Amino acid sequence: MKKNNTLLLLFLLVSSCVFSQQEKLLSGTVVVKDGNPKGIHVLNIVNEKEATTDATGNFSILGKTDDVLVISSPSVEMRRKEIEKTDYESGKVTIETLASVTELDEVEIVKFDAVSLGILSKPAKEYTPAERRVYSANSTAVDALLNLISGRTKQLKANVKVEQKEFLLEKLDGLFEDAYYEQNLGISKERIKGFHYYLVENPKFANALNAKDKTLATFLMVELAREYNGLANDKK
C-alpha cells in the first residue's frame, strides 16, 4: 500500500509539471452598468499585455490561469479580475464594472469589529485575495509539494507582489492632476500611466505612498521623473 501511494504521488507530481498551463488568446468582454464600454484599457499585469475594448466592450488578450487583468478608464470604476481555470478553459473572460461617479453624498459609516466587541484582543490578520490563494495552495503538505513542483506557488506569490503594486496604482490614480505631470515633471498625458507603473516599482516611493506621506512622495517624484524621461530619450 505504501509503495502504491508513493507511485501515485510521483504520478501526480509529473502530471502537474507536464500539464502546466501555457498562455493563450482569451476573448473578453467588459460590461459597464449604465455606461459606455468603448475604449476601456485592459492590462494583464502578469505578462504586461494590453488591449482596448471596442464599441461593444469586447477585447482579446493573452493570458493563463491566475493571471490578473485590470481595467481602467476615466469613465468607469477600476476593476481587477483574476483569470480562473473555467475562464481559461472556455477562452472567455467577463469583467463587470460601473460607470464612474464624480460626486457622492456624505455617508457616515459605523464599523464594528471583533476587537471593539471584545471577541479578540487584537485585530486578526486580513488577507487579500492573492494572499488567500497562496494560503490555500499550502493548506496541506501534499498541496504544498504539488504546487511547489508545478511552479504554481511561485506564480501565486508573484501575484501577491503584483496585487500590492495594483493597490498602489489605485492610490496614485487622481492623486495629482494631469497638468502637474505635464507642467512640473515634463511628462505628457499619454505617458502618465506608464510613469505610474515606474513609480510603484520604486521601494522608497511605494513606502511613502503607503504611509500617505504626500510631501515625500512628491519630492521623490521629481527625481524619478528625471530618470523616466531619461529612459524615454535613450529609446529615441
Structural notes for this entry:
This protein is an alpha+beta fold. It contains nine helices and seven strands. The strands form two sheets. It has a four-stranded antiparallel beta sheet, covered by helices on one side. Strand 2 and strand 3 form a beta hairpin. Helix 1 runs parallel beside helix 4, helix 3 packs antiparallel against helix 5 and helix 8 packs antiparallel against helix 9 (about 215-235). The longest helix is centred in the C-terminal third of the chain and has 22 residues, at about 215-235. The chain is globular and about 55 Å long. The model is unreliable at about 15-20 and about 100-105 (pLDDT under 50).
